[in-house]
Amino acid sequence: MADLRIGIDVGGTNTDAVVLGADGRVVAKAKRPTTRDVTGGLRAAMDAVLAELEGATDPPGASRPRDEPGGGVRSRVGRVMLGTTHATNAILERRNLGRVAVLRLGAPATTAVPPLSGWPDDLREAVSAGEAIVPGGHYVDGREISAPDLGAVRRFLDGVEADAVAVTSVFSPASDEHERLVAELVASEYGLPVSLSHEIGTLGLLERENATVLNAALYGVAAHVTGALTAVLAERGLEARPYLAQNDGTLMTVEHAARLPVATIGSGPANSLRGAAFLSGVADAVVVDVGGTSTDLGVLAGGFPRESAAAVEIGGVLTNFRMPDILAIALGGGSVVRGRGVGPDSVGYRIASEALVFGGATATMTDAAVAAGRTPPGAAAWRGRLPAAVLARAAARQNGADAREWAGDGPGGPPVAGDGSDGTPVAGKGRDGTPVAGDGAGGTPVAGDGAGTIADILAKAVAVADGMVIDAVDRMALGRSDRPLVAVGGGAFILPGRIPGVSRVIRPEHAEVANAVGAAIALASGRVDTILPAGDSRPKAIERAKAEAVARAVAAGADPSGVEIVDLLEVPLSYLSEPAVRVHVKAAGPLAR
Amino acid sequence: MSIDESDIPALARGCAILGTGGGGDVRTGSLAAVRAIRAYGEVPLVELADLPGDALVVPLSGIGAPTVGHEMIHGEDEPERVAEEVERLFGRPPSAIMSSEIGGSNGVAPVAWAARLGVPLLDADGMGRAFPEVQMVSMYVAGLPADLVIMSDIVGNVVTIRPIDGLWSERLARAVCVAAGSHALMADYVLTAGAARGAVIEGTVTRALEIGRATEGAADPLGALRDRLGAVRLITGKLTDVDRRTTGGFVRGAATIEGAGDERGRRLTVELQNENLVAVEDGAVRAMVPDLITIVDTETAAAVQTESLRYGQRVSVLAWPCDPLWRTPKGLETAGPRAFGYDLDYVPVEELTAHG
């Protein structure tokens, strides 16, 4: 009975793991520090969640066949879904990247800006085995710019030492024949793996080419991740099928991920958005994921992350593949609190030893929130750990709250007076980072009254942090105020109970591991982005694009009988000889059994 | 002076500011300029006065659909073919390249074209800003006949048009552009330096560079930019509404900015057609085309282009006077508010904003 799923999400601070039952309930969960090699943290989180699973599912007092890895509850784990930062780290740190032969089909067009223009020198050096622009490619209307010059392709490839080839042809999202032709040549004559740009990005040659080259450079990393995950499963006696999370909130088989590793970049925020939707039961919401160092805001539309319209920079390189529209602000549970405000630095994973509530000496955002009466679920006792004088001053402040006016007047939105639910002052924040909250009666530090000063600083930090969140929510909500806000992540407790611009604040159970839940519940998807004629042939062409998206979803691991078209967007194009539309189709469905 | 690689980011920022929301993305042009300078060397920047009267100046611009230009980027040899055709027609090679439109991508890309040709860039352009239509250039306002267009496409075709007037020039050039795949390089008017005097807007490349440099490392980028432009700040606030439609190749719409801080309660609406054209507050016009209206990020003072306008952005709106050429009767007839369908009599921005 393979009725259990394990979801794992590697974040900047923590690696989270959950086990979900067939009914979608969280059966076990664990959080472990992320390690530099990523895989160490992955093993630790996996071990912790399996231990909890075995504790949770065994009857009390029963002996466990721990030394029989294939037996017991572990055999019920049918799938393991991993959202990881291996690929992101490889690019940011320029480590383990493959050498890529960068081939563009388009000459004599496009020669004014050769491949890898604008790349950071060190990344280019780490990745490029050589670059060439050869004849080929298409016009916007499907005519050939010139026939693909396969002789020139061979001459180029004969002269480079490469681990992989990246092929980008002009207008390939509409006409992919030349890329496919070159892929066949490379596979049959050189035996190298090939990245084709039409499978990776959309219109916008340079950004799509960049993403394609990064993808080709990541093949080695992809193989490493797959190997590590397979090994972690085998070591633990799990016969589960592994999947990797991608940046649109869906999954792909490890075989698919091996061809499209670049799609794993940015999967963390997508996972937390999908997990928030699942845990809260809300499909349209603003999601705020508060981590240790930063807070990510995203928007759920129909249960999927709203995607960014802007080009996305990865490791200093501009790309245009789909990414969730995320606004990150430097605010987390571990953000260091000082007289002038909050962060941007954080104690990160050292919070468990450095924060005041954990007996440390650094005032953090967690301490500020706890002083204001905001504690994680089941952690109300943390308040008692703050120095007595801090609490006394905080209490005095709350008693006098209605006598004072804490007004924010930043551009972030309407001024908010004291939040009645917990008496917490809320303030706006100026764009330059200057807190603009008025200070109250207790605001003047008293010489010699160290604890009182800390209390003031903590209270001010809460006001500043709330202002940052309100401002960010307003930016992401795009003027709509009828949607709820779903608060997730380990630091979600620092958020206030009421936030202007949203209908209510939802704090679902297991919110601290929403990202891992999101990985565990994800669907598989496929997408097509192309240009089609707008005339009589349009309906048939759109049907073909839909069929292609479905086929790609199935290739990524979806059950053919369950795939649906979840997104269809048509944008008319201007200035063309024949009317044309740009069409985007996305299909998604549950994983095949 | 010369333009080298290190000048390109500032030039691009300045051209984006002068684009008044339109003129196209400066990024691809910047990459092409850096690449060409590395390959062919720095580009001398010359003044009109430096050139002999019979020296040929070629105003160049890229034309076509932005979606296409982003995908089917210019070939490196396109300017060379235009130059060869100029030499065939006039019996001597171009002495300088000029930007037809300093605002946006066509302000930066000519650096690449001049570098490729090994000729100087003229410190001037045909608009002093960005405009959507081919005839909205200073050469037309100055009365020079629109009787020569040279176009070069990505595969090497060269088309020379001898139109009878500006209308035919636009019509034929557009047809050629579509046939060439909706993307081409165009020389519209070829001028002698003598004829260019009074018919081009001088000093605009230097001005774009100065504008771009004004915000570099500034503690108050917005203030520094405003001082450099001699601009009035119409409002600082939040973008609360963007109404944008694409019709007939143009983006039309309006952006609404609501004041913040001391300006809470105020509301400014910017009417746009590719470029920002008219700014209105409480029914009163605060600035109008051909004066320049640019929406910038309040924090960084970087220009926000029409296609990038988004709800919630913290922006400021700056307005400043256009070149005097646009304030002449012919200039206003060509690119004044009525040329864009607004039933408004032109009033200079200085007068509109003189009393608050």
TrEMBL record, chain B:
- Name the source's superkingdom: Bacteria
Q: What are the S-Me-THD-like C-terminal domain coordinates in residue numbering?
A: 166-349
Among the Pfam families in the record, one is: S-Me-THD_C
InterPro entries per the UniProt record, alphabetical? S-Me-THD-like_C (IPR048350), S-Me-THD_C_sf (IPR024071), S-Me-THD_N (IPR010318), S-Me-THD_N_sf (IPR027479)
Where does the S-Me-THD N-terminal domain start and stop, copy by copy? 7-161
Per its record, how is this protein called by name? DUF917 domain-containing protein
According to the entry, what is the taxonomic lineage of the organism?
Bacteria, Bacillati, Actinomycetota, Actinomycetes, Streptosporangiales
